[in-house]
Amino acid sequence: MLGWFVGSLDYSQAYLNADIDEDCYLRAPEFLRQYDIDGIEFVWKLKKVIYGHPKGSRLWAECLDRKLKELNYTQLKTDQCVYAKWPKWNLKSLQSDSHFVFVLIHSDDLIVISNVKSVMMKEKEILLTAFEGVDQGSLSSFCGVEIETTEDKITLSMKYYWTKIIRRFEISENMQNDKPIKSKINKEDCPKSVNEERNKTYLHKLLDQ
């Protein structure tokens, strides 16, 4: 990926774009409920998928799949979450307008990659006309993983989440790191006898039923 141009975008309320494939009825929120003259409550019939529907993820995936194929993308057989197109791409006779585009998908988050920056930007515009979303600029994070790209390397980090966890549980830097076993242990580090307190803390005996 070094030397390629990588951007990201996020579709807003993605599931609501997918048509529902069966009759599904929803009780209205209490403040919006209506009744007929006999006091029978009206219910809503869904036309689109909502979040929480058991088929929501699959129906959105099928909706996005159809749209990407309409935009001349091909789904890779080796990874169904990756779509690509490569106009005029022939390694034996590459032209000035030869390029490729990859789209990597995780639910409603997309990574858009191309070897030409203007192409990558244009594809993002096209994808955002397909469904409402937000252009998140150059790829700096994806699914909680921080991404830093330089000329010679790509670095992945989860520092944000580690910092969040440390703050949540109020773990200070000077707190002792106490765990049942070290990540790297030498034979001489093994205790000569069993630590009964540690044994009770980390080991559980099966009780006879």
What does this structure look like?
The chain has four helices and eleven strands. The protein is an alpha+beta fold and 209 residues long. The protein has one domain (5-196). The strands form three sheets. A six-stranded antiparallel β-sheet has the order 4-5-6-7-1-8, with helices on one face. A three-stranded antiparallel β-sheet has the order 9-10-11, with no helix packed on it. It has a two-stranded antiparallel sheet with strand order 2-3. The protein is flat.
- Beta percentage is 15-25%
- H/E element string? EEEHEEEEHEEEEHH
Overall geometry comes to flat
Uncertain residue ranges: none
Distance between the termini: 57 Å
Helix fraction bin: 10-25%
Main pleated-sheet profile: 6 strands, antiparallel
Category by helix and strand content: alpha+beta
In spatial order, strands of the major sheet run 4-5-6-7-1-8
Total number of domains:
1
| Strand tally | 11
CA gyration radius, whole angstroms? 26 Å
Number of helical elements: 4
**Average pLDDT value?**
85
Gist?
By secondary structure, this protein is of the alpha+beta class. Helix content is 22%, strand content 22%.
Features of the shown structure:
single chain, 209 residues, alpha+beta, six-stranded antiparallel β-sheet, three-stranded antiparallel β-sheet, 11 strands, 22% helix, flat
What is the strand and helix layout of this fold?
Layout: E1 5-11, E2 25-26, E3 44-45, H1 56-70, E4 74-75, E5 82-85, E6 101-106, E7 109-114, H2 117-130, E8 133-138, E9 141-142, E10 145-149, E11 154-157, H3 159-168, H4 196-202
Antiparallel strand pairs: 1-7, 1-8, 2-3, 4-5, 5-6, 6-7, 9-10, 10-11
